[in-house]
Amino acid sequence: AQSVTQLGSHVSVSEGALVLLRCNYSSSVPPYLFWYVQYPNQGLQLLLKYTTGATLVKGINGFEAEFKKSETSFHLTKPSAHMSDAAEYFCAVSRNNDMRFGAGTRLTVKP
Amino acid sequence: KAGVTQTPRYLIKTRGQQVTLSCSPISGHRSVSWYQQTPGQGLQFLFEYFSETQRNKGNFPGRFSGRQFSNSRSEMNVSTLELGDSALYLCASSSNPGLAGGITSTDTQYFGPGTRLTVL
Q1: How many CA within 13 A on the CB side of residue B6?
Q2: What is the pLDDT of residues B57-77, one digit of tens each?
Q3: For B110, which residue in chain A has the nearest alpha carbon?
Q4: Largest CA distance in chain A
Q5: Do A104 and B43 touch (CB under 8 A)?
Q6: Could you give the CA distance from residue A21 to residue A75 in angstroms, rounded to a whole number?
């Protein structure tokens, strides 16, 4: 069965600093990979997704993620954090009609 | 155009009752997926419907069921409610059917604000 691990339930960065949210997966075959963001009292918004092709995926709001098969990772990055990036972020994997979400990482951005 | 709408936004039920939640997708979208979000279990995929047919299903008991109408609106039903069913139920819509778990390779999923169900 697939599983997703997000390292760090809480991450705090200063405004303008690099954002790095970690996601590792376990799957017998390369899965499809996703990052979602959830703002307070709202549903989820798809940030980006990897299915096939280029391993560096660019998403909305300046986020990007790189699929590294050898490391079974799909870390999310943004060069410069903005106050509006404060939210909860979820990594998800999907393969063979089985979709799993990570536990989420709450990002705090300090002024 | 209007986004995904879910009704009701908040619901309080007691154990043993049944509940029906509604999701109206974005106009033109034919795929609707449902998710359960709880503090303990996190986000879990329930099922996906496309053109009135269930295409994918997560690992939930048979008390959880759904359906989709010809106008793509979807309902989710939970029978014999348990305390552990208290959660935020999210639905998402997209144009095309999912690869798995309601996700497509080319289309974006758009989520509604959710229905918060409390079971007492």
Answers
A1: 26
A2: 888 999 999 999 999 999 999
A3: A45
A4: 43
A5: yes
A6: 6
